[in-house]
Amino acid sequence: MMIIRTPFRWRMKLLTVSIILLPLLSGCWDNKDINHRALPVIMGISLTEHNQYKIFLDIPSTDDSNNITIVSGTGDTINEIIDHMSMNMESQVDLLHLKIVIVDKNFAQSGMQDVVSAFNRSRDISSKTLFAISEQPLEQFFSEMKAKTLNSGNVLYDFFEKNAGWNPQLADTRVWQMFRSINSYTHDVIVPLIRSGKTTNIECIGSAIIKNGKMTGQISPEETLVANAFYGKSAYGKLEVMDSATVQIISNKLTHKSWMKNDQAFLRSNLKLNVTILDSKGHPTEQEIKDKLEQLLTSRLEHLFKQTQQDEADILALGQYFRNDLTREQLSRWRSEYYPELDFELKVTTKIENRGNLKNL
Amino acid sequence: MAKGGLQSAVMYVVCHMGLIFFLYPSRFFSAMQTGHWIGIVFSYAVQMTVVFLYIMGLRFAKNQTVIDIFRSAGRVVPWIVLLPAFLYLVVAFIVTIRAYSEMLTLIFLSNTPLWAILLLLFLVAFVMAWQGIGSMARTALLLAILFSGPLLFVLYLSFQNVDWYYALPFVGHKQTFTFIMDVEFQVSLFVYAGGFFFLGLLPVSIPINMKKMAIGGLLLLPMYLLSVYLPLLTFGQSTAELYEFPMLMTIDTVNVTWLMFDRITIFFLLSLMAFALLYMAVTLWTLMTLTKKALPFIPDPYGLIGLTILLFVISLAIPDWDFLKQLQIGIIPLRLYIFIVIPVLTFIMGWRLKNKANRKAEVS
């Protein structure tokens, strides 16, 4: 048998080639190092009187000082402004780590379709970026934010993050959901409305109803909780039942029954809540708490529903339950034709799972 | 042989996996509005039938390659029959490699020039093809072991944002089969068409086992469905059809707070890139094998080197994304040819050869 051995010269050649290839291993092309990049966490967008965008970027410093820099600029498109900022800064603005986009209320009311599409088209902005609407003018919002949060640029981010400061009273809407709302026939969204708070950094004052990328109305934090219960995101939300108790939602479950009759849509939903009692006033019976809770939730949802019907904004995505009954062409008219006429009733059934550490109410 | 057939089946699965998740969903959303599963199951059923016929044809001919099978009918026959297939594979190869480099720049190498990425992909495909099919088969096995884990993990997490109601209506109102005539649907068939021709060129050392192939094929069905249904359930048809790479967008929406990585898209992309590289290498090898048979006077590595350089130049010459799309529409006849005609022809020829052999055996 012959043993095949690679000749020495051949081996030397291979070695030379690998040594030549070695510098390629670093993968450095024309990427800028991290210390030459500015990584904004928050972007604020507002409209000027001349219909131009004004952008604020909240850039935490990368060194130990923990300062945040806020830069702003105006221009016709977002990318133009960012480019301009990059030019005037000592480092390159990189939106890869952008976490939150805050738009001002005026801008939200006049429509944000272009901005949302631009975010979705963009190669570096994550589609998970959160959306929020500021009630105050952004200049004021950012300067107050900066005055208060001396030591961290993460405050606002933590405020919204599920594993940090998020509450079920807060809407949780991301860029991709906004984009879906613009294009989908049945899915609208709610976006948190915030302002800088008096004692806390940020104060949530409810949610904005967004239809096709345009803010059409506003709901309270309590109604947001109901909406979140509808989305299945209400766990650990707390509800104050008038005069009798405060309960915490442990889990919820929704079932639906939908049908069409004479071109009108009917929907009966059943929301099953598992709650635990946190505190009680006086000595209400369990039945009383249940009844009041059910009444409270039903009326809140009713109110929410009536308002969205007026705005023709289907934030609860109720149109989804009629996908079987309507053709695609009919579904495209869902918001304008069927949704305002929708006959919707919600039944809430609660189960009190436990009463905490005390036996009695 | 105990292990016989595993390598070829794994190669078949890995090649398809590399293709499915990228270009397929976007084509499919353009082709169908409702009842997507009907289209998927239909194309899948056709593929399974066709692959079955192809393998049966090869089996009848007993360890001969497709080229040998057609040569038995005359010297010119393989040229006539296989030249369109060759052309299709050339275009398919260029389209895939160009689209993938385009996608890499889109996802995470936005500053790197296209030619550099193309060069890298070509180099890897070239080296793999150079090592021969045996080493590629082993590589496929290794890739499957290495990357199945992250891939399944990401696919599992992608269910985070699904809204099951988007799957309705299960069968569209007035659902018809007119989608078969849709250009976009015929383009979407490229995932089914290009990935099995190499089976006919495998040497004796890599046998094909019908049962293992069937299992591999069955594994692919959920993948076809997931690639379309995950974006559909997350975004809905009217949004999903706007995306160039719906599957990547879907994975981009997944928010995992406990994972230290912000975007899991990278895991997904890199795992599938490895699979796609294998597909490209296999296609390159197929092209090389065909060239070698057609022009036997070219000494061994030079044919491959020439072929690679030629393909590289062509893929650089493609001006833009729209041209790529037009190209894919342009080769529809070739695609249907390699997808349906070649397997059927192979089956018929194999059958003929078998009968001939039987008759010979009877006479002697």
Characteristic key phrases:
heterodimer, A: 361 residues, alpha/beta, GMP Synthetase, Chain A, domain 3, 2 domains, 8-stranded mixed β-sheet, 4-stranded mixed β-sheet, 14 strands, B: 364 residues, mainly alpha, Amino acid/polyamine transporter I, 15 helices, globular
Description:
The complex is a heterodimer of chains A (361) and B (364). Chain A is an alpha/beta fold. Chain A has two domains: 35-219, no CATH class; 222-361, GMP Synthetase, Chain A, domain 3 (2-Layer Sandwich). Chain A is 31% helix and 30% strand. In chain A, the strands form three sheets. An eight-stranded mixed β-sheet of chain A has the order 4-3-2-6-7-8-9-10, sandwiched between helices. Chain A has a four-stranded mixed β-sheet with strand order 11-12-13-14. In chain A, β11 and β12 (245-261) form a beta hairpin. In chain A, α4 packs across α7 and α8 packs across α9 (286-311). Chain A is globular and about 90 Å long. Chain B is mostly helical. Chain B has one domain: Amino acid/polyamine transporter I, CATH 1.20.1740. Helices cover 73% and strands 0% of the residues of chain B. Chain B contains 15 helices and no strands. The radius of gyration of chain B is 21 Å and the shape is globular. The relative contact order of chain B is 0.22. Chain A binds chain B through residues 29-31, 97, 120, 123-124, 126-128, 161-163, 174, 176, 179-180, 183-187, 317, 320-321, 323-324, 327-328, and chain B through 33-34, 106-107, 109-112, 116, 163, 165-166, 168-170, 172-174, 235-239, 242, 249, 252-255, 257-258, 262-263.
